[in-house]
Structures are given as structure tokens and as C-alpha cells.
Amino acid sequence: MTQAREAVRRALACVDEPAYLALDDGARLPQTAGPAVVTRMLERLEVEPGHRVLEIGTGSGFTAAVLSRLVRPGGHITSIDIDARLTARAAKLLDSDGCRNVRLVTGDGTRWVPDSRYDRVIAWVAPVRVPDVWVRQAVPGAVLVSPVHLAPLARAMAVVRLRRGPTPDRLAADLLMPGGFSEARPEPHDHWPVPSYGVDALTRDAAGRMWWVAAEWLRAHEPAVGMRLLELMITDGWHTAWPVPGERGADLHAYLMAARPDGLTTAALGAQGWGAGYSQPDGVALVGPADDLFVAGAPAAAERLDRWAREWRERGRPGMADLEPRLHRRGSGWDVRAVVP
Ligand SMILES: C[S@@+](CC[C@H](N)C(=O)[O-])C[C@H]1O[C@@H](n2cnc3c(N)ncnc32)[C@H](O)[C@@H]1O
């Protein structure tokens, strides 16, 4: 691990990130994941010289440039993006950066990838489930790192590490890490204001800010129920301090995604980012983006979230890194779920 960390550190230091991210008009290409998440994912991928790496989500070409260095000498990168404008742009940048071992391809990397044998697979967009096509083209022993959903709710996400066994049906997951990404899309998109997966009701407030809510119980109801809940959140919702200072909302989010209690909810709160917690038709209580508490409507909602938080404390306040991943075969891929050990 120390060796992998050192190799990633050296490769990152060699790449001029602003050159990849700067657009002609001076703006920056939007990156969903912060540098700490990108670094951690590259370290956990355990890339070595000579490896053949498949990357899904070329974007600016920055991570392809880092990978290009990590596999030298002898290795090569195949990087795929849904957006032909991005692959064309990245091709030029990588060429002028001397990265001759990178092949760029345009397409939906969750459905198709160029025929080859890959030692490593890394995705920077979240598929609905880990697609078979990645596992089939990976060699026995290959490592795969990808963002995934831990529950069928928007933003209920983590990054998983997988290892392929001797045959493609032998896949094992050994690690979960925190990390939020946009969802893989079937076509290019200029903006990602709304998650493309797991949103149950969506609206904008008077200032045009986006609010959405995701909860499995909503799926059994008329759309009007979700819209009324959003109205309640916009008109009646308020933020307050989390009752126990120092507790990390992200850890409670992770625990709830693993425990999957009835009523588990994720929601976007206008300009205030997003939160996770509990909802029922007449109330919501969420751990908000700044480790705060967001409540609207019936006090029973806040009482339920408080009960969940007490259970979480009793179990030692586990966060994402304490959870264990489990794989479930589903359709043409693998669902990843988490359990509290
Ligand atoms: C977070 S960005 C990638 C950032 C990139 N690694 C970098 O260094 O700039 C995610 C990328 O995934 C692409 N994408 C979205 N859906 C996709 C899909 N189905 N297949 C391949 N790429 C996809 C987007 O166009 C976007 O460029």
C-alpha cells in the first residue's frame, strides 16, 4: 500500500491538472469528486507498470494522464467517455503531454467497452450496478474500483473495490470508501443538476433552486404525495444544530445506507446541498450537509431519526470504512450493498 501511495503521489505531481481542467473561455471543467477521493481511488486500484487499465469517464483527461504514467513502462490505458467532445479534447491534451499509451473511445462505458483484457478497471461515474461487461473483460485477479449505489436512492453512494476470481462469475468485494459521483448517463449531458437515478419527486423553489426527494415508500404512492412532501420541506423546513457536537453526518449516512431502515430517505435541499434521514407523508428529518439537522412537518419524523442515531451510537458510530460490502447478482450486473459487521 505504501508503494502504491508513493507511485500515485509521484504520478499526480507530474501532471499539470489546471492544463487539463481549464476550458478555452477560462472556466474549469466541473469535477464531481475532490482530489482526496481521486487519490484514494487510484491508490486502492494498485496499478503497476505494464498493466492494461480500462477507465470509464475520461472527462478532462487528467486521470488518464496520471494512469498513463503509473503503467509505464509497457502498460496502456483505454479510456471511454459518453461525450465525443470530451474524448476529442482529451486526445489533444494527452498527445501534447506525451501520453502515447492512452487510447480514447467514445461510448456508453456501462454497456460496451473495447474488446481487450484488462488488469485494472476504474470508473469515475456511477453505474446503476457493476456491469458484467467490465468483469468479463478483466483478467483473473484484476482489481476494479467504481462508485456504486448502496441503496436504490439518489446519492446513496460509495466507492467499492472488487477483485475478479478465476471466472467472471467469481467476483469479490473487499472494501468500501466514501465518495460521491454523478451517475453514468446513456447520452452526453452538459450539466448534472438532477441525479439520473433514484429520484422520486422533484421541484424548484421560487428562487429556481432544485429540491428532490428519494424514498422507497414513495414508490407505492401517487406522485402528488412526493410533491406535497417537497412543498412542506420548502415552506416549513428549517435547519438546526445536530444535537451531539462532533458527530459526523457522513458516518450516519453510511450507517443508514447499510442498515436500510424503513423510510430511509435522501433529499436535495435547494441551495443547502443534500441530506439523508427519514421521511413519511407528513414529515421529514435529515442529517444535513453541514452535519446539521433539517426538519419539516410532523415531529414524529425527527423522533424516528433520533432513534436511528441512538442505534448508530450503540453500534460504535460506524462510518463507510467500517462497513462490509456484499455483492448480489442482478440482471446483467452486480448490486453492491453494505452491512454493518
Ligand atoms: C467525473 S467526470 C470524469 C473526470 C475525469 N476522470 C477527469 O480526470 O477529468 C465523469 C465523466 O463520465 C462521463 N460519463 C457519463 N456517463 C458515461 C457513460 N455512460 N459512459 C462513459 N462515460 C460517461 C461524463 O461525460 C464525464 O466526462
From TrEMBL:
Transmembrane segments: none
Chief location: cytoplasm
GO molecular function (one): protein-L-isoaspartate (D-aspartate) O-methyltransferase activity
EC supergroup of this enzyme: transferase
Swiss-Prot/TrEMBL keywords: Cytoplasm, Methyltransferase, S-adenosyl-L-methionine, Transferase
GO biological process, alphabetically ordered: methylation
This protein's name: Protein-L-isoaspartate O-methyltransferase
